[in-house]
Amino acid sequence: MKKLIAVILCFVTLFSLFVPVYASGITTYSNNINTTSTVFAITSTGKATVTSNYTGKSGLVTKATIKTKIQKRFGLIWITVDCGEWTDTSTNTSYSVSHTLQLLKSGTYRAHVEFKIEGTGGSPDEITKNIEKTYTKP
Asked: What burial class does residue 127 get, using C-beta atoms within 10 Å of its C-beta: 0-12 exposed, 13-18 middle, 19+ buried?
């Protein structure tokens, strides 16, 4: 009888390793923010534009900081391009900001945006977004 129970437990343990797990129903919890978004676009002439915005929870936002960088990939690392870094702050519940930069060389670029939303809802929400685009100079 003990052997039978041991064999059954072995099979249950073995087959439980192959059960797929789905995480599509997971939602992240935030203290002070409802949504953040970032759009990164590069025109055919090399004009790069990063537009970011957030919508905070009503009455909770006390300070928001948005750090934006346009970076170029060099091998495995990303380096911020000259004049491609901005820091914006707001105390509004909702805020939108846009920055533009003329790219000089072809390559893979990304917008690296860090949101830090402070408020009375608890610890600051810190959200990072990275969006990559490729530019080929004509």
From this structure: middle
Low-confidence ranges of the chain (pLDDT < 50): 19, 21-24
Tokens of 135: 């530019």
Other CB atoms closer than 10 Å to residue 121's CB: what's the count?
Answer: 18
What spatial distance separates the first Cα and last Cα of the chain, rounded to whole Å? 77
Smallest CA-to-CA distance from 43 within 109, 87, 96, 97 is with 109
> What are 28-63's pLDDT values in tens digits?
679 999 999 999 999 999 999 999 999 999 999 999
Alpha carbon distance 69, 111 (integer Å)? 6
pTM > 0.85: yes or no? no
Angle at 68 between CA 60 and CA 54, to 5 degrees: 30
Q: Do 90 and 70 contact (CB within 8 A), yes or no? A: no
Place of tokens 């495995």: 76
Q: Residue 98: count other Cβ atoms within 10 Å of its Cβ.
A: 13
